[in-house]
Specification:
The protein is mostly helical. It is about 45% helix and about 0% strand.
């Protein structure tokens, strides 16, 4: 059994290598976390403008976020596991930024693409893919097994206003 890539795929690999040579230098690579470091995999490394610019170029070329439509910030390519593997190999070899992982790109983006409004898709998908918006999810299942082992809360009306000097305001996206 021959497990080598066909000439078509090797030509694709050569194109990926040319792209990387043009858009990602050894100096760029030196400033990035290693591809297997948790920060690189989860997208929790600080947002680096150089990495974001590279990701935009890679998306434009069709190398990242191949499953996301162009109008929402992806490269809208048909599925091809061999091309995806070649891209991953070559990006890893060049220590180039790959797709950001984490709850935003892997859980929220597919949900928005399937069920979100047009305004939500326009507002959140692209910036989530580029790491400028980060997401977390909390689950609330009363009486069920969650990370907080079925924690229960209750509110009690007080006769005086409650003041929290150290409260951090949050934006609720409802």
């Amino acid at each position: 059994m021959n497990l080598e890539y066909s000439a078509e795929y090797e030509q694709f690999r050569a194109g990926v290598r040319r792209f990387l040579a043009e858009h990602w230098s050894a100096e760029d690579a030196a400033g990035q976390p290693a591809a297997d470091e948790l920060a690189a995999v989860t997208g929790t490394a600080p947002v680096d403008p150089r990495a974001a610019a590279f990701r935009l170029a890679a998306i434009e070329r069709g190398y990242l976020y191949r499953h996301v439509p162009r109008r929402y910030g992806g490269s809208e390519q048909s599925p091809d596991p061999l091309k995806a593997n070649i891209i991953a190999e070559e990006f890893r070899r060049a220590k180039a930024p790959h797709e950001i992982m984490g709850q935003g790109p892997s859980m929220l983006v597919p949900t928005l693409l399937e069920h979100g409004t047009e305004a939500q898709k326009q507002r959140f998908v692209r910036d989530t893919l580029l790491g400028s918006i980060r997401w977390c999810q909390g689950y609330s299942e009363p009486g069920a097994g969650s990370d907080l082992a079925s924690l229960r809360t209750r509110a009690v009306l007080a006769e005086f206003p409650a003041i929290h000097d150290e409260a951090v305001p949050a934006r609720w996206q409802g």
